[in-house]
Amino acid sequence: MRCSPSLLLLCALLASCDQLGIESTSSVAARKDADGKAIGGACRHAGRALEDCYSLNKRAEKAAVYAGWREMNEYMRDNQLVSVLPVLTTGGVASMPAREETVAEASLKPRPRAR
C-alpha cells in the first residue's frame, strides 16, 4: 500500500490544527471550565453570594462557577481570610468604605485589665 505525498501532507496539516489557531473541543471546554472557576473564586473573595455571581456572569457555566466559589470558600476558611470589599461600582470608582477591623487584628489588641 503506497501513500501519496499529498495524503501525508494533508495528515500533517490536520494533526497540527492547534498551531493554525483552530481550537479543539476539549481545549475550549477546559478554557470555559477554568474561566468559570476563576469567576467563582473571585466572587467568593469579593464576598458575593453564589446567586449574585450567577446573575452577574450569565455566560459562565454554573457548575464551574460553583466549583471555583467552593474552592475559594474552603481556602479562605482554612487560612482565616476575610472577604475583600469591592471598590469599583458600575459607574466608576466609589468612595473607599471604612476599614473594618479583622479578627486577627482584634485579637492582637491589648485588653483593659479588670480592677
Question: Would you summarize the structure shown here?
Answer:
By secondary structure, the protein is mostly helical. The chain has helices spanning 5-15, 25-45, 50-56, 62-78, 103-108, and strands spanning 88-89, 92-93. Helix 2 packs across helix 4.
Please give the largest β-sheet. Answer: 2 strands, antiparallel
Task: Describe the strand arrangement of the main beta sheet, using strand numbers.
Answer: 1-2
Query: Can you give the mean pLDDT?
Result: 77
Overall shape: it is elongated
Straight-line N-to-C gap: 100 Å
- Helical/strand content category: mainly alpha
SSE string, helices as H and strands as E: HHHHEEH
Task: Give the quaternary arrangement of the chains.
Answer: single chain
Write the layout of secondary structure elements.
Layout lengths: L4 H11 L9 H21 L4 H7 L5 H17 L9 E2 L2 E2 L9 H6 L7
Antiparallel strand pairs: 1-2
Describe the structure.
With 115 residues, this protein is mostly helical. It has a domain at 25-80. It is 54% helix and 3% strand. A two-stranded antiparallel sheet has the order 1-2.
Offer a few descriptive terms.
single chain; 115 residues; mainly alpha; two-stranded antiparallel sheet
